Amino acid sequence: MSLPHKGTSEATRPARAERAAAASVTGIRRLDDELGATSPAQHVVFLHAVGPDATAFLMHAACATGRSVVYATTSRSPESFEAERKRMGFASTPVVAVDLREVKDPSQARKDIDDACQVLPDATLAIESLTGLVHAWGEAAAKAWFAALKDAWKGRRLLASLADRAYEPGTRETFLGVDAVVRLARREVLGARHDVFQVVQAGGRAMTPRAFPFRVERPGGIRPHVSKILVTGAYSAGKSTLVHTLSETGVNVEHLGTTVALDHGRIDRDGLTIDLFGTPGQERFDPLIRQIGHGALGVLSVVDSARPSTLHRARTLADEISGGHVPVVYAANKQDAPGALTPEAIRERLGIPAAVPVLACRAHERESAVHVLDALVERVLATLAVPAAATGS
Ligand SMILES: Nc1nc2c(ncn2[C@@H]2O[C@H](COP(=O)(O)OP(=O)(O)OP(=O)(O)O)[C@@H](O)[C@H]2O)c(=O)[nH]1
Ligand SMILES: [Mg+2]
Fold this sequence. Notes:
Shape: elongated
Number of helices: 13
Bound molecules: guanosine-5'-triphosphate, magnesium ion
Helix content: 25-40%
Strand content: 25-35%
Largest sheet: 15 strands, mixed
CATH superfamily of the largest domain: P-loop containing nucleotide triphosphate hydrolases
Structural class: alpha/beta
Number of strands: 15
Order of helices and strands: HHEHEHEHEHHEHEEEEHEEEHEHEHEH
Number of domains: 2
CATH class of the largest domain: Alpha Beta
């Protein structure tokens, strides 16, 4: 991952943003990156479980790039679609909404869409729900209709959503036989729910399974967001320093230089927002740490490499908070301090398994801090993903 370009001048920024929007398939940078999209002329289906707001997701993907859209609604009125579009902040995108709710004849639906495309010739076509069409017309008719639509829309952007449930043989294959399939699912991690997106198919490319948690903002739309990384460890190990070095914004609650409540910081990594929560180190605050740990997606355990007597606490806290359910990365901090143990020596002393990273860290240095965070975030995304063999698409 590359660092954001801090030196971008005001003059070049809008032009760059426009170019990025023109090449974007979905208006969600992390999703575009996963899709490996070089051209927006793709057919993408959002395969959604119960829980995540698939309609908001489709709306963002269709409307956020600013290119014109023909939007076929299957379960709500064009008025309620328009109201939601405004709430999400995409009012300036040229859109023609086509109401398919009462259209009983598939050929009429196609005619209505073609008519709308006369008004907006190069528009993206978005179908709110293929499952809605299955309900209205039956599976065979909906399947045949979509197969013909895909042919007619070659070279143009086509987006649709499909409920992830059982269909008759062949139906799923037709609906998902597109350039890319994005799975929307809900995960429960340490007592909190997280909605995630994961590209499970992208033009035959081999995918590294990883799923991005997201939330829906009104206005703003889909925001990839790791809502909680817990930064823990022994007293004075460097937790607050690490959170501050990483953060673009932040607060901390300290008394005489030690954390008495928590640190909070936020960082953007290439379009993924990450919220960091630093715990107090003194043992009298341990009951609080368990509460702060609720819903954490990953644990960054900070070790003072120059104070061997405190090492075990980093392991105890990490084990207790993660419970083996969320990824842990150890930051072997204060590598610049005299007598600091190497990460290997710390791994050995604490009996940390080979699969768990123990990384050298100097918490005051941004590059070092970011390296440790990125390693953890990659593991968080991999843990949230459905394995490649089980994507069911
Ligand atoms: N040499 C060196 N000092 C560090 C490093 N990271 C933090 N420190 C220093 O260690 C001391 C404690 O740092 P904090 O970030 O307050 O540690 P903490 O873990 O938040 O401490 P508590 O909240 O009291 O548990 C401060 O004096 C920091 O400047 C590092 O990488 N190298
Ligand atoms: Mg602190």
